Amino acid sequence: MDATVAELARGRSYDTLSLREISKLAGIAPTSFYRHFHDMEGLGLALMEEHGNTLLDLMHRVREQASGGHSLIRTSVETLFDYIFANQGMARMILQESMSQHSVFSEAAENLFTTMSDDLAEFLIWDAKKRDVPLAHPHLAANSMVAILFTTGIALLNRPAEDHARHIEAAIVQLRLIMRGAEAMGQATG
Length: 190
Hints:
190 residues; Tetracycline Repressor, domain 2
């Protein structure tokens, strides 16, 4: 897995990697590869799952920081993009596969987005109750927020570094608008 991540970090696309090449880079015989994975698809799915779990853990830690007085939205966005920039190869794989049609990887990326969105919606509901603020459509708000973050992530991977701050600030504003709208709608219907 480490050898694959290293190749992705060098700018290689996952679909250009071969089992023999990865085995050689990992210092194992190709037949040993099969002790760990059925095929390259299995390796890719394991990588996506591992990085998806890391993203969820990061977001949980961000929420703990936010309860200490930090801006939840700003901290979430900055943490996510720091992770994406530090893991560009894997981020590119996950983000690009989310846009491909009918592949095992696109299904895994969609499952990751759904998991992140569901997790965020649960947090939004909990946070609104804690703050005694009515909140309308928390699942729709969470879906929109996750979509904005990953769309921005795709754009940032293909843009020069000097454009990053502007796009990150735009994502922060968009997420704040979604939250203000969900809260305003909650008050209007409450």
